[in-house]
Amino acid sequence: MTTPRVGIYPGTFDPITNGHLDIIRRAAKIVDRLVIGVARNDGKGPLFATDERVEIVRDDIAHALDRSTADRIEVQAFESLLMTFAESVRASVIIRGLRAVSDFEYEFQMAGMNARLNDRIETVFLMSSDRYQFISSRFVKEIAALDGDITHFVSKRVAARLADRYAKRRKG
User: Fold this and answer.
1) Is 168 a catalytic residue?
2) Active site residue 152
3) In CA terms, which of 10, 17, 63, 167 is 20 to 30 Å from 57?
4) Is 171 noted as a catalytic residue in this protein?
């Protein structure tokens, strides 16, 4: 019996976008089990708390992916080094999405550092599909904060959560 290949797709997911879902869908094809690692990164000043982001990612996966794919995906928060988290879930592959050449240098350096920390865990880069290359969580939040239409970039559920969050901020 072979050991199942576990992959990890880490990120802040503040919020999860259609581009993230595309990478998740494609990553699930190359691993037996996929762990979405939602980074607790208070230094980035996230709009949503870590527990909210985990809930939003789980909800989006449940609604966007077929059941057989969604059943092989789990979502967990983490606040350790990525390699420590990868080891804790027995991942042998780290999945990273690349939108543009500008992402490559940072990701290349990160992959090199991670390989020095644990050379048994490979980093695999998936290029964003052309229809999602320009989407970033940061841009989605900026558009949403100004009441722009974000429905082409995120699911209806995420768009509603963003609208609600910004409405509360304006009132409060």
Assistant:
1) no
2) no
3) 167
4) no
